Amino acid sequence: MMVDAKKQGYRVKEYQGPVKRYCQTLNLKDNPELIAEYRKRHSQGEVWPETLAAIREVGILEMEIYILGSRLFMIVETPLDFDWDSAMARMATLPKQEEWEAYMSVFQQADAGASSAEKWQLMDRMFHLYE
Q: What pTM did the predictor assign?
């Protein structure tokens, strides 16, 4: 019997201390073939090594992307001293990052020449389970 990960939950990495979390959203073009290809390009072994290196180089500890239909939801975890604007500005200058964004843009409802920071919209947290 196949396990439904959505209902089992996704294990997250543990860190020595507290981290910050950023949440973003982006819509894909509502086309099943394009969405299938977008998923493939983000599967293990398909994401460019330079893209993974850029994510780590700017200080991101963990990044997850979830999908429902054509809606994407990204969770980014960082150290507490992480500065979003400077990290995203730096990421845009790293090797092959502009090429990766162009490679992904055909699937996304965003301007073709937009950077990752321009395409992915930061979300407001409106609720959390208070201690």
A: 0.89
